[in-house]
Amino acid sequence: MLRPKTLVQYPWVVVRIECVLCDRRGRYRLARLAARYGPEQSLDGLLADLAHDCPWWRTNPRKYEPRCGARFADLERNLPPPDHPDEPVYQRRQPTREDVQKSASRSPPQQPAGTVPLLSTWPHFEIVVSCATCGRRDVLDVALLRQALQNGDARLMDLRVSLTAQCPRREAQSIYEQCGAVLIAPGQ
Predict the structure, then answer these.
(1) Strand 137-141 to strand 126-131: parallel, antiparallel, or no bridges (unpaired)?
(2) What is the average pLDDT across 111-130?
(3) 10 Å Cβ neighbour count for 68?
(4) β-pair partners for 139
(5) Paired residues of 136 in beta bridges
(6) What spans are recorded as compositionally biased (Basic and acidic residues) (predicted)?
(7) Is the confidence at residue 4, as pLDDT, over 60?
(8) What is the pLDDT of residues 145-169, one digit of tens each?
(9) Treating both helix axes as pointing N-terminal to C-terminal, what angle do 30-37 and 43-50 enclose, rounded to 10 degrees?
(10) Which element (helix H / strand E) includes 73?
(11) Where do the domains of the chain lie?
């Protein structure tokens, strides 16, 4: 669905606005908004008019200054409009057996809450050390890693630290230049 620019293009009969930062939300009839602001009113201008009294609203915010989180709730979720205005927009359905099987086949086995991820619980034969900062990408064999370790197992967090110990970016002062290495599964 293409994002509408004006009130004329808005696909729903009810315009819902909500803030992602606070509990402010509102519902307005599209016809009343079009009568008050005009049908060619831009949605950005309408949002500015409706949320102008927010204490976080800034017309020209600075880089790290907090700003209002008001948005059009239905446009953000990218759902088709309902056929009837009184029909609920969001219908939560119960997961089917196929949904559960698909999610189980895609995700690695879940560990019990409170346990530390270990190399022995890694579900793949290889482990990839990837850094978005410098572009490093090493593929390591899990069996060889376990042989190289003294006790045969290690926490994944400690393993990442030891594998990136020689990285020159590890001690960088700026967070934008620090080593960003992570351990990921092959194929990601």
Answers:
(1) antiparallel
(2) 74
(3) 20
(4) 128
(5) none
(6) 75-101
(7) yes
(8) 888 887 778 888 788 888 777 777 7
(9) 90
(10) helix 73-77
(11) 14-77, 115-184
The Cα–Cα gap between 117 and 66 comes to 36
Going across the sheet that includes 25-29, the strands are 25-29, 14-19, 70-72
**15-73, pLDDT tens digit by residue?**
888 887 777 888 899 999 999 999 999 998 998 888 877 777 766 667 776 677 888 88
* 181 contacts 164 by C-beta, under 8 angstroms: yes
Long-range contacts of 22-31 (CB under 8 A, 24+ apart): 22/56, 22/69, 24/51, 24/54, 24/70, 25/73, 26/50
Structure tokens at 132: 């978005």
Q: Which residue in the block uniquely carries the two structure tokens 């393993």?
A: 159
Helix (H/G/I), strand (E/B), else coil: 58: coil
Record the pTM: 0.42
The one-letter amino acid at 128: V
Amino acid at 5: K
Nearest to 169 by CA among 126, 128, 121, 134: 134
Identify the DSSP state of 81.
P
Would you state the structure tokens that stand for residue 102, as one six-digit string?
């698909």
Phi/psi region, residue 50 (left: phi>0; alpha: psi -120 to 50; beta: rest), is alpha
Dihedral-angle region of residue 55 (phi above 0 means left; psi in -120 to 50 means alpha; beta otherwise) = alpha
